[in-house]
Amino acid sequence: MSEAPIDKSIDSTSKPRRQMQQGTNALLKSKEFSTVRTLLFEWIKTNIVMFVNAGSLIGTTVVTSVLGFAYWWVAARWFPPEAVGLGAATISAMMLLGMVCILGLGTLLIGELPRRPGEEGPLISAALIVVGGVGGCAGVVFALVAPFVAADFQVLRASVEDILLFAAGVSLFAITLVLDQALIGLLRSELQLWRNTFFAVAKLAALFVVSLWLSHRVGLTIYTTWLIGNAFSLAVLTGYVILKKGWSRRTYLPQWGLLRMLGFAALQHHIFNLLYQLPSLVLPVLVTILLSPTMNAWFYVSYMLVNFTFSVSFALTTTLYAMCSAHPAILARKARLTLGLGAVAAILANFVFQFATSQVLGVFGHIYAEQATWSLRILALGAFPFIIRSHYVAIYRIQGRVLHALLPVSAGMLIELGAAALGARLGGLSGLSLGWVAALCAEAAYMSRTVYRVAFPASTVVWFWCQVKKLVPTSLIDKTSMREREGL
Q1: Residue 451: pLDDT above 90?
Q2: Top mean-pLDDT range of 118-127, 140-149, 208-217, 415-424
Q3: Do both 236 and 329 map to the same domain?
Q4: Are residues 122 and 233 in the same domain?
Q5: Are 105 and 129 in a shared domain?
Q6: Is 483 a residue whose pLDDT tops 50?
């Protein structure tokens, strides 16, 4: 039986059709890819200010941490232990005094500079002069009084030069703190990144030089390198600004009347900042008192690692405050962006800390990997409620309602410390970590309503529902609504 002949004409026409279909599919895919690429480019372009400024703040944390590690490695290698200990103590005292002496002016400038175009220079100059003077006076008082409390600080008042040296360090540190925050308010965070980089490199180079040239190395020698680093970075930044914009006395002449008018707002920010930052300063002390100094070493390493994750949310919300203080209309859109980016950062960090805990802590020694594993895992979960808390604070700052947030933040601070102390009594280091994170979750539960209402106002929810109705068949929505009514 003979086979039917194959129709070659059909085969010859189907092949070009398949090729044409493949070409059409490839063209559609290329168009879809081009559309996605265009949308992504537009999204990045729209939010480039947020990315640059928040990225600069995160970069500052990375640079200062890495070069700070190198700095203390050189100090430990070339200086005697007693000099390193005294140097660390005097630097810690300088930083604490500097934070107290900025009087809330740094936070004030972040929000006020965008609202006062043309008055940036006079306002920054007045704030820097005030904090520099207050810092210097506080440094003199501390140098004279501290030796009565701790004999090791006797070196601070050994001579008039030593007193003035310590006071100058506190003054310069307070100035740099406020200046960095002013640059954030101007949305020029890249300048504070460069200033901090110059500071970290200069103090490291100064420490290396004095370790080679000086035979008599004391604690104040280490302290002096910090002063040199701050002075050098300020000089470089000042020179850059003068070269870029020129020198005009009227541009930088302080406006004392304007600063006095904002004095009460600065005081509110100052009290708020102290309450907000108190738990992070007290927790290591609490661990030492309730548990032991050894356990505090394990806790501090875990807290230091997790704190880098917290710094991402802090950088995002600080930039949010700077961008939206003068333009509250964009707050909802930008808040959704920072919430999303903060959540992504928290998820990625937890992926590392939950599944590679031993490897991360093993860098510091096997004893840390054995004793601090669960503490790190628990503390890492605190990144999620911290996102809500940091946005809550930024929202109240943007809305100018800092006074209204004092009570919730004060209550949250007491709950955090109380829960951490109770957890330490019941479960040791892991119990303390769990108590603190549980307190953060309680705060986030209370604050989430405010954050949600700002980030997702009614108009946004209605728009989202309209988009869903366009995508979902009408019959399915009607059936769902009918079932809900029948259920009621």
Answers
A1: yes
A2: 415-424
A3: no
A4: yes
A5: yes
A6: no
Domain boundary among 233, 261, 289: 261
Determine, yes or no, domain membership for 354: yes
**Does 215 reside within a domain?**
yes
Total tally of structural domains belonging to the chain: 2
pLDDT higher than 80, residue 260: yes
- Same domain? For 116 and 257 the reply is yes
Mean predicted confidence (pLDDT) in 179-197:
91
- Does 208 lie in the same domain as 313? no
Domain that holds residue 76: 50-261
Residue 13 belongs to some domain of the structure: no
| Shared-domain flag, residues 114 and 148 | yes
In a shared domain, residues 245 and 333: no
What average pLDDT does the segment 367-387 reach? 90
pLDDT at 16 over 60: no
Q: In this predicted model, what pLDDT tens digit does every residue of 327-361 receive, in sequence order? A: 888 899 999 999 999 999 999 999 999 998 888 88
171-180, 244-253, 287-296, 479-488: least confidently modelled range: 479-488
- C-alpha span between 17 and 396 (Å, rounded): 63
